[in-house]
Amino acid sequence: MKKMDLTVDLGRGLVLPNPVMTASGTFGYGEEASDYFNISRLGAVVVKGISREPREGNPPPRVVETPSGMLNSIGLQNVGVEAFLARKLPFLLEAGARVVVNVLGSTVEEYVQVCRRLSGCEGILALEINISCPNVKEGGVQFGMRQDLAAGLVGVLREATDLHLMVKLSPNCGDIAGMALAVESAGADSVSLINTITGMEIDVRTRRPVLGGVVGGLSGPAVRPVALRMVHEVYRAVRIPVVGIGGIVEGLHAAQFMIAGASAVQVGTATFGDPMAPLKVLDGLCEFLDKEGVSAGEITGSLRTGTP
Ligand SMILES: Cc1cc2nc3c(=O)[nH]c(=O)nc-3n(C[C@H](O)[C@H](O)[C@H](O)COP(=O)(O)O)c2cc1C
User: Fold this and answer.
1) How far does residue 227's CA lie from ligand 1's centre (Å)?
2) 133 is catalytic
3) Domain of 128, in residue numbers
4) 187: domain CATH number?
5) Is 160 within a domain?
6) Is 256 contained in some domain?
7) In angstroms, what is the span from residue 50 Cα to ligand 1's centroid?
8) For the chain, how many structural domains are there in total?
9) Which alpha helices (DSSP H) does 120-209 contain, by range?
10) Binding pocket residue ranges, ligand 1, CB within 6 Å
11) Is 35 exposed, middle or buried (0-12, 13-18, 19+ CB in 10 A)?
12) Of all protein residues, whose CA lies closest to atom 19 belonging to ligand 1?
């Protein structure tokens, strides 16, 4: 059987040998997974969100299993940009991984500083901007909830870096296609979606929220149909590449996202159940493309609507 071309070019230098990446926050900095497989086989590794200073995150408990998924309120816990560059990036580069750094901040200035600091560093291919962070100057409203705030942030970051800017959209914003258009106009090179859907779980005995952060983000197979619908909506609205995320567990799920319009995908929660999940998704996707006789590029956006 002829092996299909898996290469994807997401623009501004972000060319991946295949469309399967890890999703931020579910793969750490690649160290644990390296005990299981060669992480250079993945299209790219997207690392846990990085801020200017190290952050502790939310009080425990921080995760709870839910039907077909999980809720997390990890918060913005991370090692901070300097420790990432000194202690985490060298390992990823040594392992041959293509690195995408997920960036977070509480102010526009913080995002700018982190992006600038990462821009000069060899081996970083792209920045994924997590706009689901509370903007302290706007009284805690998330950048990703308002199109004007998101576009303002992306416009400033566009000036601050020449790296590929992938903007990660929140499903909680209401009009996700409008949001995608807003960040595209402001200079985003691609959009990735979805981040987690806000939810909560309650212990009826204590009448207390199960999570220390009260509310959390829902992820895993439970969100896949929502994510698929949103990817398709966004694909139809914008011209920049779309990266599909949400509940991908096997290769055929990745194929679904690509048919809906994604040029590439990320695998998140599935990794907690099986550290090999991203690789299995890649192998399953390859098998599907080979069987169909189509390349990764050809399957993107090939959804057939109308009467069969
Ligand atoms: C424990 C955990 C931590 C996460 N941390 C981040 C993060 O730091 N930055 C970010 O943009 N998304 C983060 N996410 C969201 C995921 O990257 C992904 O968008 C979401 O979980 C949906 O994909 P999935 O269903 O495959 O997990 C996190 C998700 C989980 C479950």
Assistant:
1) 13
2) yes
3) 8-57+77-199+220-299
4) 3.20.20.70
5) yes
6) yes
7) 13
8) 1
9) 147-160, 176-185
10) 23-26, 48-49, 72, 74, 102, 130, 168, 195-196, 219-220, 223, 245-248, 267-270
11) exposed
12) 195
pTM over 0.85: yes
- Vertex 211 angle, CA 207 and 215, to 5°: 95
Ligand 1 atom index nearest CA of 69:
25
CA of 300 to the centre of ligand 1 (A): 23
Residues 226-282: tens digit of each pLDDT? 999 999 999 999 999 999 999 999 999 999 999 999 999 999 999 999 999 999 999
Q: Ligand 1: which residue has its CA nearest to atom 26?
A: 268
Helix ranges, the chain (H): 81-83, 89-94, 108-119, 147-160, 176-185, 224-237, 251-260, 270-273, 277-292, 296-299
Determine the Cα–Cα distance for residues 287 and 10; give it in Å rounded to an integer: 22
Query: Which atom of ligand 1 is found nearest the CA of 104?
Result: 9
Tens-digit pLDDT profile for residues 46-103: 999 999 999 998 999 999 999 999 999 998 899 999 999 999 999 999 999 999 999 9
Length of the chain: 308
d(CA 189, CA 123): 18
pLDDT band at 212 (very low <50, low <70, confident <90, very high): very high
Point out the ligand 1 atom lying closest to the alpha carbon of residue 72: 1
- 21, part of any domain: yes
Distance (Å) from CA 288 to ligand 1 centroid: 26
Is residue 212 a part of any domain in this protein? no
Structure tokens belonging to residue 47: 């690392």
DSSP letters, 31-98, are TTGGGTS-GGGSSBEEEEEE-SS-B--PPSP-EEEETTEEEE--TT-B--HHHIIIIIHHHHHHTT--
What the block records as the tokens of 215 is 């509310």
**Phi, psi (degrees; rounded to nearest 5) at 296:** -60, -40
Ligand 1 pocket mutation pick from 21, 22, 24 by most atoms within 8 angstroms of CB: 24
On the 0-12 / 13-18 / 19+ scale of CB atoms within 10 A, 155 is middle
